[in-house]
């Protein structure tokens, strides 16, 4: 009996959605292959595919309110974030990749006079993506747009608890004129639907965003089956490095450090969950940071004034509280939060939490908690700041704050992470590549023209001239 995917605890979501079985995944992959080979999409001029994708973006704009509501209900994200960031960001991604697709070029290489040697990038055919629950639409858009723009047929599995906004996009894709079967959204569990995608021999490339634990399983499944190209975007434990001279940035520093730590209740892969602050200003910075964190409104995600909604489920909340308790028992000071509060029955609301004086070996400093929890550590030298920042097997993101640009850039270059922002918290816009190092990921980047590399493979063609 297949599980029904129920809306998350405390949401107002409607009818459960049936999960797609492993056997059905296989049928979908076979049919996707047929659709690809038919050329209804892959055979179009790139410019024509771009026009259809731009129509999809327009339809998403038309239905922006619906998409925001579904995202808010399924993921428990504050509606304001969905309306102001997630939905517009997803629409912008579709537009950006659509507009880019007829500007991709190959190369001619410097072979001898009797030869023309060139390279081109070709779609794989059938490709797949597996998504996390924390940014369902934004992550879907980062994958749908470049994968389809180059002509692939895409099978996309949303996270178990957050399928509805992505299913709505599938309906809009049909309305925009993307032929049936080119984009398939298959809701389901990781253990069945996701695992079947990872093992399917027809899928040429799979782009995964989610936890490092699951990424390892998917990579192993690909290795044991058809060696499909796997791209992994996974977890993080990102540092925010704050030098004394950055306090001059005033409210900008505090508000961005807060955003970096607590957006989406800290359930964000680039969350700056480790604050590293120069000892001489640690007291002042921490006081201002804690005051701003205390002012965040924990509440019903559907209330436009809410800053912090629920965490994804009760298990996640219990795990967070246990790790906080363990740190406290080991000698850490809880400056703020560290508790669950009742807002809506069934939801799990962890209050913004700040700890300092954390023992160096505490789990809270090394595990991705994926909740509204930050630790504050101090440093006295630049070298110490860099060593602390790099003290993690992850390598997704970091931010560095200093008014001395030479120092800020030097430190940014010394941090082992794929995305570093200076004097801001930012993942960059669509022109900058996004991807992790180390246990945060490998195999390709999202965003920028380089994202097309995940969805295409390079072919070298050697033409011998006979003259
Ligand atoms: P998760 O790993 O539990 O699940 C991610 C997806 O994988 C889901 O769709 C799930 O159903 C599927 N899955 C689970 N087991 C599977 C299996 N055996 N085979 C195939 N698929 C399987 O992650 P999550 O809890 O949904 O998301 C949170 C994680 O995602 C965090 O670690 C976060 O840092 C990470 N994340 C990373 C990025 C990034 O760009 N680096 C972005 C967002 C989230």
UniProtKB/TrEMBL annotation:
Keyword presence, ATP-binding: no
One Pfam family per UniProt: Aldedh
GO molecular function terms attached to this record: oxidoreductase activity, acting on the aldehyde or oxo group of donors, NAD or NADP as acceptor
Every Aldehyde dehydrogenase domain range: 17-461
Active site residues per record: 233
PROSITE patterns: ALDEHYDE_DEHYDR_CYS, ALDEHYDE_DEHYDR_GLU
Domain of life assignment: Bacteria
Keywords: Oxidoreductase
Keyword Flavoprotein: no
Listed InterPro entries: Ald_DH/histidinol_DH, Ald_DH_C, Ald_DH_CS_CYS, Ald_DH_CS_GLU, Ald_DH_N, Aldehyde_DH_dom
Protein family membership: Belongs to the aldehyde dehydrogenase family.
Protein's recorded name: Aldehyde dehydrogenase family protein
Organism from which the protein derives: Mycetocola lacteus
């Amino acid at each position: 009996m297949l599980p029904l995917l129920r809306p998350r605890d405390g949401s107002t979501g409607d009818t459960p959605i049936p999960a797609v079985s492993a056997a059905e995944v296989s049928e979908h992959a076979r049919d996707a292959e047929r659709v690809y080979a038919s050329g209804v999409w892959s055979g179009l001029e790139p410019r024509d595919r771009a026009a259809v994708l731009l129509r999809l973006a327009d339809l998403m704009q038309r239905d922006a309110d619906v998409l925001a509501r579904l995202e808010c209900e399924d993921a428990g994200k504050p509606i304001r974030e969905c309306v102001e960031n997630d939905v517009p960001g997803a629409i912008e991604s579709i537009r950006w990749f659509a507009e880019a697709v007829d500007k991709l070029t190959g190369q001619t290489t410097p072979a001898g006079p009797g030869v023309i040697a060139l390279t081109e990038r070709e779609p794989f055919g059938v490709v797949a993506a597996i998504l996390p629950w924390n940014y369902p639409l934004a992550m879907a858009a980062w994958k749908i747009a470049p994968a389809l723009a180059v002509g692939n047929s895409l099978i996309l599995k949303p996270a178990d608890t957050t399928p509805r906004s992505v299913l709505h996009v599938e309906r809009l894709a049909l309305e925009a004129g993307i032929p049936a079967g080119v984009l398939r959204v298959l809701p389901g569990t990781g253990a069945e639907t996701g695992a079947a995608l990872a093992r399917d021999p027809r899928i040429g490339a799979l782009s995964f965003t989610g936890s490092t634990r699951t990424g390892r399983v998917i990579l192993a499944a690909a290795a044991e089956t058809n060696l499909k190209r796997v791209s992994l975007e996974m977890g993080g434990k990102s540092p925010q490095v704050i030098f004394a001279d950055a306090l001059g940035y005033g409210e900008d520093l505090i508000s961005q450090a807060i955003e970096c730590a607590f957006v989406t209740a800290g359930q964000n892969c680039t969350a700056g969950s480790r604050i590293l602050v120069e000892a001489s200003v640690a007291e002042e910075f921490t006081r201002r940071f804690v005051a701003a964190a205390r002012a965040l409104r924990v509440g019903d995600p559907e209330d436009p004034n809410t800053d912090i909604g629920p965490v994804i489920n009760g298990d996640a909340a219990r795990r967070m509280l246990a790790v906080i308790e363990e740190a406290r028992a080991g000698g850490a000071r809880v400056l703020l939060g560290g508790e669950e509060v009742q807002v809506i029955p069934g939801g799990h609301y962890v209050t913004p939490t700040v700890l300092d004086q954390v023992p160096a070996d505490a789990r809270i400093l090394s595990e991705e908690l994926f909740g509204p929890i930050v630790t504050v550590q101090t440093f006295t030298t630049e070298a110490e700041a860099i060593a602390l920042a790099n003290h993690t097997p992850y390598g997704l993101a970091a931010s560095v704050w200093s008014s001395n640009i030479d120092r800020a850039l030097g430190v940014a270059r010394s941090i082992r992470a794929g995305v570093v922002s200076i004097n801001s918290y930012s993942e960059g816009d669509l022109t900058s590549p996004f991807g992790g190092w180390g246990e945060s990921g490998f195999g390709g980047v999202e965003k920028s023209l380089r994202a097309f590399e995940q969805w295409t493979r390079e072919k070298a063609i050697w033409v011998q001239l006979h003259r």
